[in-house]
Amino acid sequence: MTDQNSGTRSHRSPDAPSRRAPRRPRKHKGLKITLSVLLVLLLAAGGTVWWLYSRLDGNIKGVDIDKALGDNRPEKLPTSGQNLLVLGSDSRAGAENKALGGGGGVSGARSDTALVVHIPEGRQKAVAVSIPRDTLVTRPECAKADGSTMPTANRVMFNSVYSQVGPACVVKTVEKMSGVRIDHYLEINFAGFKDLVDAIGGVTVDVPQDIHDSASGLDLTAGPHKLDGTQSLSYVRTRHGIGDGSDLGRIGLQQQFLLALLSEVKSQNLLGSPTNSYKIANSATKSLTTDSGLASLKSLAEFARSMNGVDPSTMETIMLPVAYDKQDPNRVVAAQPQAGDLWKAIRKDTTIPESAKKSPAHGG
Q1: Distance between CA atoms of 27 and 282, rounded to whole angstroms?
Q2: Rounded to two decimals, what is the model's pTM?
């Protein structure tokens, strides 16, 4: 997929959102599959896997975000809590990711999903803000891995930043658009998500309507189904088989899947079983990339323990308020003043106004 530097495109891509009027998800909005990976990983890493430290620790890959970004970053306020950028990468690296990625000859990787997870001071209630991948943003000037510089560009699609410049530039882009200082970065790829679901024996979901997605091969009738890892990945990524075919439209399925995943984890009492905890932690860490500050099992476990007071059932999920772009209705842009008010509340660790949670383009 390529980004847009200006204007409209003459041909609609297979992944482009539909022009049809979207439906609003029933409850929370903006849920992305990577949040489920983060939550389960933190649970699995928190205290029961120390005896397998040496094996799991070597799985985690680290990126020195602070070095790459330097000092020109938003100020870290003393009472602003912790902010994590969580990405789900559609990397085609490795045979397993290629097999899961679909898309024919598509190569490289993009940030298929993105969440800014805000954990307020006191660690009691978290907020997750999803950034739709079709959002047009200003990409700041960024350093590439080879030492060269990628100049700033306007009207580029958010999910293209990862493939063009890398994870550090995604962090820089999010900080520029939000003014929020990102403390940590976590990324997991296709294979990691699939293996995580398989490690817990699958997840049962109540499919709201028949889904026939020829692009992914997902074929489900309405009603309860226990999905394995491959089916789960197709379920949370489907955009052609349900709703209006947009990136915004699949949010409801992703929210439903997260709740089902957490229920499955709770019912299995994974924290009480070192063997199951290891299986989950091993599956997650093998496909995990973090900032250098979290790039060890010890650091992840310490961070997990600091979040013991956060109840996942109370987590609020919000989609970044967006509106359809006036030049290209197949793309969205941050809606103002809603988006500005949302980011301001997160920066200052204050209550998010209800008006800042409403998005003119809300999918369905």
Answers
A1: 33
A2: 0.76
